[in-house]
Amino acid sequence: MSKNFIVEIYFKDDIEIENIRYDEINDFLDKNCKIIKKDYIFYENVKIEQYNPFKLYSYIKYEVANFDKNINTQLSLFSEIKLVKSKTKLSNEEKNNINVSIEQINNIIEKIDDIYFIRKSLSKFTKYIDDKKKNDFLNELKLLSSLKYDLKRETFSLRIIDIKKEMNAIEKIIKEYISLLGLNIKFSINHNDIKIDKTMFYKIKESLIDVLHNSVLSFFETKNSNINVKEVYTLELNLKQEKYNLIIEVVEKGNSLDINYIYNNALKANILNRNETYTDKDILLSILNKKYINALDDLDEKEKIMNFIKINNVIEELDGKIEISLVDDIMRFNINIPFKILFINGFVFSEMNKTYVINTEYIVDTFEFDNKNVNSLNGYNYYKYKNNNIEYIKLPIESEEKDRLGLLIKTNNKYTVIDVNRKHDFEDIFFNKDEKSKIYMGEVLLRTVKKAKILNIESIIDMLKG
């Protein structure tokens, strides 16, 4: 299936309107690319003292049927053109065969939850069922509960992005841009099989691509300022899950960055104070401040900063944070966003007819628990684990006394021993995080159709160990 392209043409700042060959450029693109749509995108915040009625103050945005490196090269022969950006426009068919909104998915999940109440109402009729048919009736009720579990899980999965497909799409967009600019950049994307909610991802996707475009453009500017230097640049996009947070990292290597230039602009924009002392990180973070743009005159530079400001606003909206660091010629742009919907591999166990889940990410080892190995010292309890005294805590839940299994837990680089019912299972679980409780992270319906509470093991350990 053919794809349309978005092509943006930027003109040199010193070119006046009458010297821009609009018709020739338009005819060339229509002949070679077939123009579908054309828009003039005007720059915002042009200062009145800089305004010249004979200048364009805009770029042209085309949607065309095809575009390649050869066409881009021919466009560069127009002397008034400063830069051409292009990217693939994915059709709705390619994104999803059927578009379903997140709100619709949530409504479906709520309707599926009604099955629980239907089952509960039907169970009242058990006493009226003939004894010969009672077991059959109870089995049907169990199947109804299993249906609820399966429907909810399958429907909920619609909210999860196809991480491989999304990363391939981003990689293609950025590599096309690199190719069009004729740069020697090693671009790579690294990720594991993390599960990201579509609501979160689609809020940050466009801004993330803009930041990657910023990086490529910075490499382009660095190359032009050091025209005799044959430099190989590296650009990485890394995504991973750390505990209950999404970590996104953009790494640039080989780019030139003038920290003093940023510092002086931050002073000019009244973001920093000349009488204060700042670290490089403090100075770099000033580019995320919307006032920073007031210190800039160059429109291209303003556009780049607007991309940083835009992604910062999105990340703040998601309760996340951004950090920027520069060591030698390596700049790291780190984004940390807490997941609202969590996906974990759960260690499932029961105590006193109640079921609980612990995230297996915290479990280092399991072993036969012997209460004789617990000893007290200076008001703290310790467990003798492989000839080492590891601090021991009892979970703040009712527990049984026999058949105990020991768990060696690691949180914040410290070890703790706890004990649970020996009988256990494992299950992949998704749930909405409960921010209020210090003991429980949320509640979930398991494959066995039992409800289980997810223990906030890190918070419990911090609370009990002080």
Automatic annotation (TrEMBL):
Domain of life: Bacteria
Protein's UniProt keywords contain Kinase: yes
A GO MF term: kinase activity
Keyword set, alphabetical order: Kinase, Transferase
InterPro entries per the UniProt record, alphabetical: HATPase_C_sf
Name recorded for this polypeptide: CheA signal transduction histidine kinase
